[in-house]
C-alpha cells in the first residue's frame, strides 16, 4: 500500500521523521509509460517519445512556477503543453477539450478546441529547436531557443502534468532538468512533492 511505502521511507531515511524524503530518494521526472497512448513508444530512459499519441510526465505541476523544455529531434505532427490525467492520449492532436492546453506544431495554442494564441509565423519551431514552457497555474508561456515568444495561453483548470504528443514521424525529447536554456526568473524545474502528508 502507498501508506506502508511512505512509512518505510520515513523509517529508513534516518532524518528523524521530519516528513521529507531525502533528495536521493526522489524519483526522476520523466515521461510516464503508465499514462500514454497505445501506439506511443518511449525510449532513452523516459526522455524520448515517438510513435503516435500522447504521454504525460510522471509529476504534476504542484509548485507555483515550473519550467520544462522539449527538443524537436524530428519534425512532423506534434504538440506540447499541459494536461490533466483525464486527457485522452490516443486522440491526436490534443487541445480539443478542457483537459489539455497545447502548442501544436503549426504554432497554434489550443484549449477546449479554441485557438488561444499563435506563435509569430517566423517563429515556428524547427528540427533541432528547443521549446521551453513555463506554467504558473494561470498562464502557460512559450520560449523558443531561450527567447520569450510573448504568446501566453490559459484556461485549463485542476492538477496538470506536462504533456507531449507525436504523429507522422515526429520525435521529441523532453528536458525536465539540465536545461539547454536558463529558466526565466522565478521559474524552476518540476519538483516532486517532497512533503509526506
UniProtKB/TrEMBL annotation:
InterPro entries to which the protein is assigned, alphabetical: B30.2/SPRY, B30.2/SPRY_sf, ConA-like_dom_sf, SPRY_dom, SPRYD7
Pfam families: SPRY
Domain B30.2/SPRY as annotated: residue spans: 1-185
PROSITE patterns in alphabetical order: B302_SPRY
CDD domains: SPRYD7 (cd12880)
Xref: PANTHER family: C13ORF1 PROTEIN-RELATED, SPRY DOMAIN-CONTAINING PROTEIN 7
Name of the featured protein: SPRY domain-containing protein 7
Organism: Myripristis murdjan
Originating gene: SPRYD7
